[in-house]
Structure formats: structure tokens, C-alpha cells
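Dear support,

I submitted the protein below through the web form. The confirmation email said the job was done, but the results page showed an empty box. After a refresh the structure appeared. I'm attaching both so you can tell me whether what I see now is the final result or a partial one.
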Amino acid sequence: MTNRTESANRRSAKEAAHMMRLRRSLAVLLTTAALAGLPACSQMKVQTVYDQRVDFSGYTSWAWATEEALLINDGSLNPRIYNETNEGLIRGAIERELGHRGMVNKAPDDAEAQLVLFFTVTTDKMIEIGGLGTNPYNLQWSEDVASRERTKGTLTIGVFDRASRKQVWSGWASKPLTPGEDAKVVIDAAVGKILEGFPPK
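What the results page shows now:
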């Protein structure tokens, strides 16, 4: 009995360490996305990167990195963005898009899942200034004279190869968020655009 308990504890510790490595890899991805300097405008901006050495045609199955919530509200984040409803909407949109591509969704602990997926949402404050045209910074110009502060949201999806435990693909969509927008419409559009070219040919 003791041996089985120790074995289970070792597996749990190993899985926890793997999750930490995935989170660190995703943090690097998010830093890369931020440094890319995506321009803020009314349109959604989408970008993807992937390992061109990888043959994606062989992937037929995938799993979430964890069944636990990936959108985590620690009390300091906007509860209108970081909530269970949006968590479910993002997961559902990703599952539908990959299902349309014939990819099978496995359980997180299923060793047959070839890919492991992660996602996160980040927000940044942007300033909209009237009457000055466009710019490449975290500013947005409008025809209004007055300036106002807005929130830009970025949804990032990271894909890892389970066997190598290396990130092979990532994509993100960024747009200014407007109060009153239908979250499902925005999320479905973002996920659809991010995964439009997935898997790469």
C-alpha cells in the first residue's frame, strides 16, 4: 500500500513539474507577443508562429493541459473578463474548431493525446486620442477631440508536442474591448481567426 502511495505521489509531483514548465513556456510566448507590438485598432489583429521543422500532418489528437480553470481571477483581475463563463466559451470554441479539423479531444492524462493545449487572456490599457491619425504604439487615434482610456484584450493559444514537451505552435488575437459586446461573438471570432491556419500545411 505504501509503495502504491509513494508511486502516486511521484506521478503527481512529476505532473506538477510538467505543468510548471508549460506555464513558463507560455510566459515566454506572451512576452514574445507583447514585444511584437501589435497595433491597436478597431479591427482584430491576429498572428501565428510555429516550428517549421515539425510535420503537423501526423497529429490527430490533443488534450487540455489541465482540467482546472486556465482563466484565473486572483482578485485583482477584471471579473468581467476572468470568469467561468468566458472560460467555458473559450474552451468550447477551441474544441469546436479542432473538431472541425477531425482532431480528437482526449483527457489531459491520456498518454495518447499527441498535442497539449493551453490558452490565456491578457489585457492592456490603451489611450484613444482624437484627431491625430494612426500610430504603431499602444495608442489609438479617433475622430473625437477628447481622449479616453480603453482596454485591449489578447487571447493566446499555445500548442505543445506531448512527446517532446516542446512548444510547436502558437497564435494570438488582439483587439480593443467595447463595453456591451457579446462575449461569445468576440471569442468565437478570435478563436476562429487564430486557428484558421491550424494545423500548418
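Response: this is the final, complete result; the empty box was a page-load delay. The two ends are 50 Å apart (CA to CA).
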